[in-house]
Amino acid sequence: MYHPKETTEIGAGLRYPIKDVMKTTTMYRHETTDLRGLGRMGHSGFFGTLGFFILSSAILGNTVFLNKAWAQTTAPPEVTHREQVAYKEEKGALPDGTGYLIRIPEEWNGTLIRDLDYVARVGQQGRADRYEHLLNSGYALAGTGRHPLRQWQYDPAREISKLDLVLDRFEATYGEPERVIQFGCSGGGHVSLAVAEDFSDRIDGSVVLSGHTPVWIMNSFLDGWFALQSLLGEYYVEAGHGPASDLAITELLSDGSSNPSGHGMTGSLPEAWRKAFDAAQESPEGRARMALAFVLGQWPAWMADDTSKPDLNNVEELQEAMYHSLLRLSQSPGGEARIMFENSAQGQQLSWNENVDYAEFYENGNPALKNAVEQLYQEAGLDLQADIQKINDMPGVLASSHAMEYWSAPGRTIVGDPKIPVIRLHSLGDYQIPYTLMLGYEDLVAENGNSDLLRTALIRSTGHCTESAISTAESTAAIEVLNRRLDAGEWPSTEAKDLNALANSLGTGTPARFMPLGGHDVGEYNRAWVPAASSQDN
Predict the structure, then answer these.
(1) For an engineered disulfide with 98, which of 64, 94, 126, 510 has Cβ 3.0 to 4.6 Å away?
(2) In whole angstroms, what is the distance from residue 357 CA to residue 13 CA?
(3) Among residues of the chain, what percentage have pLDDT more than 90?
(4) How many Å apart are CA 110 and CA 176, to the nearest integer?
(5) Which residue has the higher pLDDT, 411 or 40?
(6) Where are the domains positioned within the chain?
(7) SS3 per-residue string spanning 123-178
(8) Adjacent-strand bridge partners of 456
């Protein structure tokens, strides 16, 4: 059985290699210790008269050796006044260079929130508020940063193993938490799903915010981008921008044009796509064909922050929203972070559409977007079925068997078999990860008879993982819902109106925008992939 820890350089039998690892532990105090919002308060006065100190540790196996001389002779740090309650902080680097951070409030409620992206996001404007609120509410927080080589070596299974090391450190110093919740957004959301399915022995429940699944997301993006590549080249060429071959979507080069995070690109490729979208927008035919890509890819029409949510019954509003969404998507041709995903399995392709019938995919599309496409095609005097056939006739993309084997491993994909309760939220207009991945997972979980372990909720917002996409109120409400499920053994209501009432009651000062799925459903998510049943005709 594959296990992430057994495939890293850490080595079987060692939680840490034989190496001194410097860490710092600091106590921060603030005059305000009121714990706002949710949280079951336990471990009151856990730290009591704990003073300030810095310690150095060398960790071998499960044994922790404290450098007492250092602790006794090093002057305590100055008190730092913050908005948060008093808390103790430990930070450092794991043996492979991955940063980690632990914060535990003086009045700890016994629950630990573990997050893949805690190191970076706790200090980011637009993302830090949710962590501050959780700390103020009595939760301990721990997690990692993303490794600087992630763009070339992305491996969520490995990331899970690093989170396990952080949990080892937490337990060695502070004891075993009463409850551990895996929490994360985007790649952290995928980790939360994978932990719930394959590595749940130390975790009680998972909160998933706008989570991706690597093969699923790359195939969903491939479908829409393949349609755009098949149908928009003529507008790019006619406008005098260059040959259609400029409009690449797969096998992208690691030439430095991708941003260090792996998200977004600069240079000639995204610029070429922006020109193609602008050219296509000038004609009824181009506008109709861009809309078709949204149906085939099962993308939301609304993904640009500077636009209003379109009325699903207003074709003009939908088309305008889709155009602006494409301009935003142009920063990541072929799909968000495609270079990173393609680099992961030694540069081998993980997405495919050979033998895909896009006529069938069209039938599974969102009804409102299909209606818009059909009206736009009629107004343009185009044959919709002829265009779909043209896409089908284009040379398809083949996945590498090596890549499929790589992505089949536990931790790197999901199969709809959670072992612990999971609540999953998604922004309707998330431009990096279509919300339809959440719908596909919900269906897969139901097929496996696991619906009692999953609840999902949609949020009326655009953006990705920021406060504007998923607010502190919304993410904290998800934790509260999960806590109630873990306490009572059954879910409270997750209807949109009830989630909004709960979120508004938490005193975060941030919006609650949960919404029913309504007209945003699809017939069936086209790209659910389960390794045991994988083939290139699914």
Answers:
(1) 94
(2) 48
(3) 75
(4) 9
(5) 411
(6) 4-177, 215-404
(7) CCCCCCHHHHHHHHCCCEEEEECCCCCHHHHCCHHHHHHHHHHHHHHHHHHHCCCC
(8) 424
